[in-house]
Amino acid sequence: MNFITIDKKDWAPGVDQSRKTYRVYGPVEDKNGCQIKPLAPDMQPKMDAPVTVMSAKSVLFPQTEKILTATLDESKEDHHVMKPVETDDMPRVVLGIRPYDAKAVHLVKLNFDNPDYKDPYWCAAYDATTFVGLGVTRPGPCDFSTAVGSGPFSEEGLDVLMADMDDKYLAKILTEKGEKWAAACGFATAADPKESQVLFDVLKKEAEKQIQADVNTDKLAQKTILDLYDAPFWDEVAFSCINCGTCTYVCPTCWCFDIQDETRHNTAVRFRNWDTCMSSLFTHHASGHNPRGTKVQRVRQRFMHKLKYFLDKYDQGIMCVGCGRCVASCPVNIDIREVCNRMNDYETTK
Amino acid sequence: MDTCIEKIRAIGADLLAKGTVEKVIGFADGSIPMATRPVALTSDKDVGKLVFNSVCGLNLANYVSKNSLSKKEGKIAVVAKGCDARNLVTHIVENQISREQVYIIGVPCTGMVDKRKIAALFEDEITGFEEDGDTLTITSASKTETVKKADVLRHNCRVCTHRNPPVYDVMAGDPVEEQTLDQPYEDVDRIAAMDPDARWAYFEKLTENCIRCYACRNACPLCYCPTCFVDESGPQWVGKGQNDTDVATFHFLRAFHCAGRCTDCGACVEACPMGINVRDFTRKLNKDALELFGWEAGLDLDKRPPLDVYSPNDPNDFIK
């Protein structure tokens, strides 16, 4: 593993230099709080940004993505035949991604890229993307990443992990993609691997110490699905829920989508949009029947999927990286940490 | 307002103990700083969970009608600020609930704080929030700030002229003085003064980060339709993606649906994760309702809202 140092004076010129080969994404601050967005040529990522309201999920999985298109002009031979849209396969780099968001990419990958299914859009975007993470030195009160297998300096899913050292970044190159990105920026000042690792370890320890996450997931795997499903606390958990989709949209690991066709004049387009299990329409059958017709059923689904079904299916922990965005953004303060503990501690009386 | 809480708890406990109501809907402390959560309590032993402070920004009328009251259910008590009570009145006038079904625990309100304004005082995340009378003490890992509540009030609370519930069964405190304003719709006037292109650009910019989570709609007590027009799937009226026209259509139609019904409670803005001031849409309609019909929503149990009555004095001439 090699380490490099990047003088902050060289950072912006390096980012600019990389634009020849990379489309650059990073935290942008506007009136609506920080977002991870593609950066215009004259923009630099706001590296010292607080946690972004939305995760980096949309870099690989846009909220609305055009996937197929067709002409409806019957004079054309190929009318009504859906064809892939042209995609921009230019390499892209996400700068300043939080380590837990990179871990989330790994969890989402289990769904979009597995032996049974390979989602062509997600996989192509994933192959083209380099993730340059920035370790979190001051985790906020919603951050519980250490409790769910990630953490402020977790390396999983990252190509480069950087640490802010005031006047410079210390960067740990983790993959070949990361190496290529550093080369494209012209960042080449080697740092002593041993010393650097010690520094990373210290920073990691310091940051992890600040997270007071009392979230336990150890007993979830032993529970039976139906016991949890029938647990008595769901009404209480769901009472305040207003069934907005905020928690699912801000979540870096929620991956549900809906396919929609739209036509305009002689062009038909097939889109994929984020969908949310909080919406009653999500499970509304064409027959009119809705198997999850009530709020409490929908709320239960969200937590059962994240904390039980996913765990049982993939054996890779829960479908949560502890970013705390759903806790921070929930208008009625439904806290996944409390729900998780309730599920984990639930014992049937049977 | 903290002084109200003992009274709220005592009233709630009494109502539950005597069986006057089946449950009390109020606010409880949240799990993170500056958060509270709506709760429904059924036992008088739990009333200690109730809180009332300057971060009870949602509208509890939202929990009475569409999801908690069935015919079978008995009376429900609701802790209500001025705006919450006005929305309960609207529910009653619009036949969502009957006056007998709800017991209104009125709270004289001195306003809710703008959490984003407070967050903007800090570079890092807020870790603590204390309220003592008119003084707020907010902490983060890097510093502590003391501010006057009046300086960080939400805009809708700054321009509120109905801080006391117009209708209630019991008040949990002495009424507060109502504000009188020289220019209650200064924000609307500022937007109205723009030329059409600038105004259009203003609203385009306003909703550009909308993620269509519909938190604004779902936090709003007025949005109780069994199926919202954006959720209608056969036929589908509005596209579901991030297309500008579809996003704008949702916001425009939702706002119009609230015309003459909105109490400017601010729950929509409070709920929006993207900080969109959706009140910019509804405020103009409130101003119109006031200027054209002399109407403010939720003040009177015996008057129909202006858009569901015919009046020979209607200011428009299309009907004459």
From TrEMBL, chain A:
EC primary class: oxidoreductase
Keywords assigned by UniProt, alphabetized: Iron, Iron-sulfur, Metal-binding, Oxidoreductase
Source species, domain of life: Bacteria
Cross-referenced InterPro entries: 4Fe4S_Fe-S-bd (IPR017896), 4Fe4S_Fe_S_CS (IPR017900), Helical_ferredxn (IPR009051)
4Fe-4S ferredoxin-type domain location: 230-262, 310-339
Enzyme Commission number(s) from the entry: 1.12.2.1
SUPFAM superfamilies: alpha-helical ferredoxin (SSF46548)
A molecular function (GO) term: cytochrome-c3 hydrogenase activity
Family annotation (Pfam families): Fer4_22
Protein's name according to its UniProt entry: Periplasmic [NiFe] ferredoxin hydrogenase large subunit HydB
Naturally occurring in which organism (per UniProt): Desulfotignum phosphitoxidans DSM 13687
Gene: hydB
TrEMBL record, chain B:
Superkingdom to which the source organism belongs: Bacteria
A Pfam match: FrhB_FdhB_C
Protein name: NAD-dependent formate dehydrogenase subunit beta
Enzyme Commission numbers on file: 1.2.1.2
Keyword Coiled coil: no
Molecular-function GO term, any one: metal ion binding
Keywords for this protein: Iron, Iron-sulfur, Metal-binding, Oxidoreductase
Organism whose genome encodes this protein: Desulfotignum phosphitoxidans DSM 13687
UniProt domain 4Fe-4S ferredoxin-type: residue ranges: 253-281
PROSITE patterns reported for this sequence: 4FE4S_FER_1, 4FE4S_FER_2
